[in-house]
Amino acid sequence: MKPSPLQLESYMFTRVHVDACDNPACQDIEGTGQFESNTHCQQHNEDASRWMVTVGLAFVQADGEECPPYTIDIEVVGFFHVADEFPEEKKISMVKANAPAILFGAIREMVANITSRGPYPRFDLPTVTFIDEAQPKAVKANGAE
């Protein structure tokens, strides 16, 4: 095991909202709800080795489905440092793939902690990957993505 060239310096939750469904039958509903997520990575203006990364996640009632046991709206902001010796051409991909994954782990733990004290069983978020977000997007000849 060795330290990663991407180091988390600090993080904070900027939004945490969890609602338990008010219908007791919700605890028996499996597979309802849908995920919505967003990520944003921003490099520091003066120090190119520092990044601010935001990950937002919502779990909401899907159209035409019963209310899920919990609806969730949560956002976390993390501050990261990339080692100076890490190759410059790989830094953006490193940040976009790994920083959101680190922050998603914090979201996953927060949601499990809150819902474990709710009226329904603990809600464990699935494991995810952010590798697709790290891939450069193809740009068409007209400049559109």
From TrEMBL:
Keywords: Protein transport, Translocation, Transport. The keyword Endoplasmic reticulum does not apply. InterPro entries: SecB, SecB-like_sf. Gene3D superfamilies: SecB-like (3.10.420.10). It comes from the Bacteria. It holds the Pfam family SecB. Belongs to the SecB family. This is Protein-export chaperone SecB. It comes from Pontiella agarivorans.
